[in-house]
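User: Study the shape:
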Amino acid sequence: MSRHSFDPQVAAEVGVNAAVIYQNIAWWCERNAVKQRNIRDGNAWTFNSIRQFEDLFPYLTAKQVRLALEKLETHGFL
């Protein structure tokens, strides 16, 4: 069983859905930084398609994922 979590401060700014996705992205970026994978311009990164996020978070629709990613970008998290 996987566990999904989020930072309440991020959720207050962009909503719970976006905070859950952000936590996943942050975790992968931290992991990639430690393993020195997917490094560009000194920054670790990760990637997923909206479909892959839907698979990771089956309680979110493609529209909810897209909106969450847009909020994260607009608010400077991504």
